[in-house]
Amino acid sequence: MERKKVGIAGCGLMGGGIAQVCARAGLDVVVLEADEGLLKRGLDNIAKDLEKVVARGKMTAEEKDEVLGRIRGTVNLRDFSDRDVVIEAIIENLEKKQNLFRELDIICPPQTLFCSNTSSIPIIEMASVTKRPGRCIGLHFFNPVPVMKLIEVIGTILTDDSAVQEGVEFSKAIGKTPIVTKDRAGFVVNLLLIPFIVDAIRALELGLASAEDIDTGMTLGCSHPMGPLALADFIGLDTVYYISNILYDEFKDPKYAAPLLLKQMVKAGYLGRKSGRGIYLYNT
Ligand code: 3HC
């Protein structure tokens, strides 16, 4: 693959991880944030992550500097005007995503491939506000992005087959394994993962077993790297709640419905690791 120019909108947990992975694969990366403060925080987090990789002896300090040298931060969307691929990884808010896609459509050349990292919003919602719905796909990464090998490549009924293929090739070029899925709420992974997590929370709510024992059941009984409750805290209880609501709204199947315990924890601000308390307590 030629040295692609990639634009990543959003430098939070996902956007920063995507920027890091693309730069490590040798791509030219521009990463956008809403203001200078958020941008600095995002770029600092990427640098800290890479310092850990160096400390573990998996990269030299020189290589780290080269990787960081391939990432340029910006707060100006116009800096995406020369990008071959743009990956949107901003907040899960449809209006904000649509506004971004509308602006990108004006700024970027017609051949630029538009990708969204949304976990749950149908890609067609963003594609349909652009004049290039055939060039819009989903590229769904998993957290932690530098570690998780999978990318879901999503094509809508308006997407050109060639654009899906480009998404597949792009995923391989950055060292990931793509799977192709249709544009349906939850795609493949969250469609299966969210009811599993929600069932584990339901089991906890029913007093079936302690949180630790439910998780041990799945780590030692099924070799999962994390139990479903620890994973829920890792993903963020607010995110699990949000996706379960989207799946329930779409399919009206009670297996996706958020248990009361999950709803109450989110309302209480117990969001998992990021807030210091979720199903488990964390030292922040
Ligand atoms: N960033 C970068 N690297 C990280 C990292 C991070 N946040 N967390 C861990 N790593 C690296 C470590 O440095 C280490 O690398 P090395 O092997 O090169 O030394 C390797 O990953 C293993 O890490 P640790 O030994 O510290 O920890 P574990 O072995 O316990 O692994 C884990 C941690 C990778 C998070 C593992 O527990 C895991 O795979 N958990 C499941 C994660 C998962 O399922 N994610 C998907 C969530 S769903 C999703 O994202 C979709 C969304 O739409 C909801």
Taking the alpha carbons of the first and last residues, their distance comes to 42 Å
Largest sheet: 8 strands, mixed
> CATH-wise, what's the superfamily of the largest domain?
NAD(P)-binding Rossmann-like Domain
Q: Mind telling me which CATH architecture of the largest domain this is?
A: 3-Layer(aba) Sandwich
Name the average pLDDT.
97
- The helix content is 40-55%
The low-pLDDT segments are none
Under the CATH scheme, which class of the largest domain? Alpha Beta
Short overview:
The protein is an alpha/beta fold and 284 residues long.
Task: Describe this protein's structure.
This protein is an alpha/beta fold and 284 residues long. The protein folds into two domains: 5-182, NAD(P)-binding Rossmann-like Domain (Rossmann fold), CATH 3.40.50.720; 190-272, N-(1-d-carboxylethyl)-l-norvaline Dehydrogenase, domain 2 (Orthogonal Bundle), CATH 1.10.1040. The chain is built from eleven helices and eight strands. It has helices spanning 13-24, 36-55, 61-69, 94-107, 123-127, 161-173, 189-205, 211-222, 228-235, 237-251, 260-267; strands at 5-9, 28-32, 71-74, 85-88, 113-116, 136-140, 150-155, 177-182. The chain has an eight-stranded mixed sheet with strand order 3-2-1-4-5-6-7-8, sandwiched between helices. α1 (13-24) crosses α2, α7 crosses α9 and α9 packs across α10 (237-251). The longest helix is centred in the first third of the chain and has 20 residues, at 36-55. It is globular and about 55 Å long. Bound molecules: 3-hydroxybutanoyl-coenzyme A.
